[in-house]
Amino acid sequence: MVVSLLKLTYNELVEQLNDDDRIVVWTCNDCVRYCGLGGRDPLDALADRLEADGYNVIHRELCGISCNRGLVRNRQTHPATKPIYQDATVIIPLVCREGLETLAFVFKKQRIIDTVETLGLGVYSEETGMRLNVPLEETGLEPSIDGYDLAELAEQRGLHTGPFVAGQKAKAK
Amino acid sequence: MGAQTEAVPYEEIVAQLEPGEKVALVTCNTCVRVCETGGEAFMEEMARRLRADGFEVTDEVVTITACNRDYVFDAPMSGRQTATIVLACDVGWMAVVQRFRDRKCVKACKTTGLMSSVPKSRPKAGAAAS
User: Distance, in angstroms, between B78 CA and closest chain A CA?
Assistant: First the structure.
């Protein structure tokens, strides 16, 4: 699975929003769910918090895998969601880097907030949670059979473990 | 999803085996299936070739995602193998290594990157083979 951490805190995220933005909160439901920063619960927690803080969340999108361009484009063109995406001004993605770039490719008229840093590939288990095992070259880390702890990596690199809004840890089923 | 892979040539895989060795096959059924470097059909073909070449294939296992270690650890296997050939990306291979630390684990796939959207980002080389 792809291992990602958040670049922003909630407060840093909302600094990039305008009062009149029409917001879509978008989450992938695969790798980022195992990383604890995406999936249904973090999606709802973030959208609820934004609404409570006065922002206009017009849609919450749960997409099975956001690195599949066909699935993403389907949201853009399907009659049920097309008007939403024509109206939206900004998308907040809870996805990995690949998902973010796919969103940016498909939704050219909306701002896509750059929320995540992808660090490489990892192994998940209920016992250990997600760990980073095969880091990307730019991390400077070596591959590791037993992997790196995400909380330690976040602290070392000025990143953040998910989710944006505390108390709604994602659970892999 | 996410790992982009290339198939390791069959000859390079069997070069890491002893003649007549007992071999288990484990394949992921997600990214490598999309990349056409793994999945059930590829595993069955490899098992056929291994048997034809005199190896004993003890197990053929399909996991949904090999990077979820729980699937790998829970997969029923005979435990008779001395080598496991892994049709998965590097992290899938690592999950199998975590289960069979005292036995040979041979990569049948080479991880070349993350899928399509991040072409410049490559995993670190040197996730040691077998």
Answer: 22
pLDDT tens digit string along B36-47? Answer: 999 999 999 999
Give tens-digit pLDDT for A62-91. 999 998 889 999 999 999 999 999 999 999
A81: amino acid identity, one letter: T
Contact of A53 with A25, CB cutoff 8 Å? no
Would you tell me how many other CB atoms lie within 10 Å of the CB of residue A51? 13
Neighbouring C-beta atoms of residue A18, cutoff 10 Å: 12
8 Å CB contact of A138 and B121? yes
Q: B73 contacts in A (CB within 8 Å)?
A: 125
| Beta carbons of A108 and A74 less than 8 angstroms apart | no
Give strand ranges (E) for B10-82.
22-28, 56-63
Q: What residues in B contact A118, CB-CB < 8 Å?
A: 114, 118, 121
Tokens of A150: 């995400």
pTM: 0.89
Q: How many Cβ atoms sit within 10 Å of the Cβ of residue B112?
A: 14
State how far the Cα of A133 lies from the Cα of A88, in Å rounded to an integer: 37
Between chains, do B111 and A134 touch, taking CB under 8 Å as contact?
Answer: yes
* 8 Å CB contact between A124 and B106: no
Closest CA to B65 of B2, B128, B14: B2
